[in-house]
UniProtKB/TrEMBL annotation:
Coiled coil: none annotated. Belongs to the Mrp/NBP35 ATP-binding proteins family. In the N-terminal section; belongs to the MIP18 family. This is Iron-sulfur cluster carrier protein. ATP binds at residues 26-33. The lineage of its organism: Bacteria, Bacillati, Actinomycetota, Actinomycetes, Kitasatosporales. Keywords: ATP-binding, Hydrolase, Iron, Iron-sulfur, Metal-binding, Nucleotide-binding.
Amino acid sequence: RGGQAEREVPFAQPNSLTRVYCVASGKGGVGKSSVTVNLAAAMAADGLNVGVVDADIYGHSVPRMLGAEGRPTQVEDMIMPPSAHGVKVISIGMFTPGNAPVVWRGPMLHRALQQFLADVYWGDLDVLLLDLPPGTGDIAISVAQLIPNAEILVVTTPQQAAAEVAERAGSIAVQTHQKIVGVVENMSGLPCPHCDEMVDVFGTGGGQRVAEGLSRTTGTNVPVLGAIPIDVRLREGGDEGKPVVLTDPDSPAGAAIRSVAGKL
Ligand code: ADP
């Protein structure tokens, strides 16, 4: 939109009815994108209008995990996002030619995010989920500027160096006056396929520790919204573009994520 005034971000309007959640994590590989995609699919299956912005500049794995293989198209001066399983999705990966690695600097990322929010035709969304890059960087501040009422959902493993992550995420939230809606603990043990015992592959208690740390730093009550076990079906669903909440909603991971979706 060279030269033109920036369009307003509809979700930033005070009368917007769209709930916006930023899914954040302290580091990569904790399942942030898997949780985002499954929450989105679960909410869409419940009849909500759902959109996902994949702003994870390092991973941008949301379209594949959701099975949204289509390309965005342009109608007049709006971008029409592809969709899958009733979820509209736009990804930073759709705009990097040949998926070439791009060094995204803060201002560029801010601009891309502004366009994803304002120039994409989302329609009337009930919920918009943003998959943020891991860590607490510029993008969290950008999101807060672009959508002040966006809330933050933190994904962690049971293992994570809780205090550190909590403190950083918490102090940014305090700075930006954003609400942390809760913590989701992922990879919370592996149900043994041979007996009923739970194998705590990544230890225990990370979700609780992060929630307590965030409660302390923000001075609010940040709850643990759920614990998602390690589940082969979740990983397979991600690889195949068929979210486990749809293919196997009553599997341990599927049920756990649907329960979290019900609390948002
Ligand atoms: P992040 O977005 O935090 O980098 P991903 O969602 O890409 O993490 O997950 C990293 C890998 O772990 C993926 O291959 C994903 O399928 C797998 N994974 C995530 N959560 C689970 C889980 N609960 N059970 C099994 N595999 C999982």
